[in-house]
Amino acid sequence: PKTDIVFLKVHKSASSTVMNVLFRFGDTHNLTFVFPIGGGNQLHYPHHFLAKAVQGFSPGSPRRFNILCHHMRFLQPEVQKVVSSSAVYFSILRNPVQLMESSFMYYKSTSAFSHARSLEEFLSQPYRYYNPERGDRHYARNLMAFDFGFNPDAEVSARRVQLMLKAIEASFDLLLISEYFDESMVLLKELLCWDLDSVVYFPLNSRDSKTKATLSAAIVEKIKDWNRLDWEIYTHFNRTFWERIDRDFGRERMQREVKALRERQAELARICLQEMGSVAPKDIQDPSLRPLQHGSAKILGYNIKRGLDKETERMCRRLVTPELQYSGALYKRQFAQKPP
């Protein structure tokens, strides 16, 4: 199994669920994580990643960490200072149309979105609300391109798009697609030489469907247009994702693997979860399992069955612990104060 991993956590793209997979693997195999100084979940974000902002890194004796998966704006030369040269790099993409709808709800308080009453209103005159000079502008335009380290306001020429796609291809071993999350987990399992239980998951940080908006065809086109860089990234890597499946896997084998993953997931839901699935934030009984609520989105969570044996309870808890709580626990363990 591969243990040196860089995951570029792209916002609002099912990346918290991927992170839980990495947290669990690192947790059970006693691996080290890259944390910002003092803990937390942003590595110098929204500025480009810097090794010197990492706790436990010093240029004199460069310490290598196993897993880098917290939010960062990608800058490979700096990333290479904190992970081994053999690390596997991967990221995840989401259709920019759904990504924008989700960002508008989740980041409603940012400068670009706070004064627009709806996404339609924002897109009817984006520059009335959007200021490229503002430090939080990236949440409102080409968020994926921004997280990959590019300028979200760059003009979209064929040459720029070409260079951007080539740069991403040169840096990353795999790009997952959140709309095909199960297929993505199968490819990831293969790439990392992990077993099925390591990539099984329950969706985390997902939103109550009642807070999701339906978008008209005209709005969809406006979103694609406004996020043209993201659209180019997504369509290119969605295509190569399926080419990779056809080349390395075959659709039949992929279907079998996805079926096995879903069956195991259903089995774990029966073992672990009270309601067999997610519940609204107000219905989560254990406060330590309550995800952070942000913007006007309602973020769902889980209740674990009572009366489980210790080992099963620990496994179930790992599967449903929200990102911030899990990250905090791993940080505490990794940087526990040694008694004098």
UniProtKB/TrEMBL annotation:
Keywords: Glycoprotein, Golgi apparatus, Membrane, Signal-anchor, Transferase, Transmembrane, Transmembrane helix. GO terms for cellular component: Golgi membrane. GO terms for biological process: glycolipid biosynthetic process. It is a single-pass type II membrane protein. Its main location: Golgi. It is found in: Golgi apparatus membrane. It comes from the Eukaryota. One of its GO terms (molecular function) is galactosylceramide sulfotransferase activity. Belongs to the galactose-3-O-sulfotransferase family. This is Galactose-3-O-sulfotransferase 2.
